[in-house]
Amino acid sequence: MIRVAICGIALATLLAGCAGLGVTEGPSPVRGKTIVLDPGHGGTADTDSYRVGPSGEREEWINLRVGLMLRDLLEARGATVIMTRTEDVPVQIAPRGLMAVESDADLFLSIHHNATADRSVNFPIVYFHGYASENQASVALGRLVAEEIRDALFDGEGPVSLVSDHTIFPNSGAGVLRNSYGVPGVLGEASFFSNADEEQRLKGERHNRREAQAYLAAIEAFFAMPTPPILEKYSTGRIPPFEVFQEADRMRPEALNWRANYESGHAMCQSETPELQSALELLTLSARSFPDSPVARRAHADRSRVLYLLGRSEESETEQARARELYVNVDEE
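Given the sequence above, the corresponding structure tokens read:
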């Protein structure tokens, strides 16, 4: 399948929509592929108060609805689909990723939705495991997923983040991606259920199906091209962890200022008389508060510049590596 755009709509998305209308295009690239789908979380309503939207819709319910729809779409095109769960029940993290390795899967996709303290936020985030230069197949898949989700749910507008799972779990990454390493795989956070308007959309079957079709389009496009390599983890060295707010901590009041802190810190380090220490503190707080935000890569790049000006050249080089390996600009080839 050649991936082009028609009137701003990715061809893969267009064809996925046509397939729902009974229009065929020949054998799908997913035919004969084994794909593991992981609807994130499950069975946590009584124990988890974080994964719930303003009016009570829970993330694990949305994840499962989208996952089951995507399973049906893939199976209809000849793929073998393995689900980590098909009901609202808990499944331990390690077995989810290991299913992909043990089944010799061709692709692993963990389906999630997001939350943060700033309830105005709503955009897609896609995670790959480890470093971009090593996990090239997953980066390629992540780029396609990010583009298709943005096209389908956000009319092709606004920010999108394609980042390493080390941005949010800096010591070892996300368990499902870590345990499935070697299989092309990503964890997709298609939108934010903490946004009240998006939560209402996510309750609807039509919105869920649009998301499932976007994943289908990305997966088909991925299998229609040569698969890039996946190198041994950390074969190019290791980047020291940058500690960040995690999960419920990202709902803390100071996390609301992630963008303002970045903008103020950026302005300070660009001025004729830069306030370097204050800029560093603000940039650091922004990156810690929302490490996978649309400005986090720029915050780390600015931190590199400030550290260099402060005479901390080794730390500056580490920040350059962090911005390069953990963040991918989807809008640049």
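The longest strand covers residues 107-114. Try to locate this feature in the token string yourself.
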